Amino acid sequence: MTMATLLQGIAEDLRFIRSHSLQPKWYKALKAFILLGFLLSYWAFFGLKRTAIFLSVFLLLSLGLHLLYRAGTHGWKRSWLDFVVAEQQGEIGPQRIGIFYYVAIVMSAGLSVVASQLLA
């Protein structure tokens, strides 16, 4: 894989993330504040080292989940697992994402907490 191909893939994913309607726009913005609030609270209770480990593990697991969905959906173009793609107004686009994705995110957060407590 060349650097140009990698950058093109990242740009495609960023366009998808900004444009999809799988979650309301207010929730997309709220997620950042939820994560920030959680990180600040975690830091206050457990310190910087455990917070850094939590964040590192969580981001790594989230990236893995993202890449798994990207590969399974062939770049967000096909239905796979709980990600549903349908034709809308003559264009193929994502329609919904199901419970598996959200369970995987919660499990990633839980594994990240465990890792941060055991590795620090």
Question: How are the SSEs placed, and which strands pair?
Answer:
Elements: H1 3-19, H2 25-46, H3 48-72, E1 83-88, E2 91-97, H4 99-119
Antiparallel strand pairs: 1-2
Helix pairs in contact: 2-3, 3-4
What does this structure look like?
With 120 residues, the protein is mainly alpha-helical. It has one domain. Helices cover 71% and strands 11% of the residues. A two-stranded antiparallel ribbon has the order 1-2. The radius of gyration is 16 Å and the shape is globular.
Features:
two-stranded antiparallel sheet; 4 helices; mainly alpha
Instruction: Calculate Rg over CA atoms.
Output: 16 Å
Please summarize the sheet with the most strands: 2 strands, antiparallel
Q: Topology as H/E string? A: HHHEEH
E-strand count: 2
Give a short overview.
By secondary structure, the chain is mainly alpha-helical.
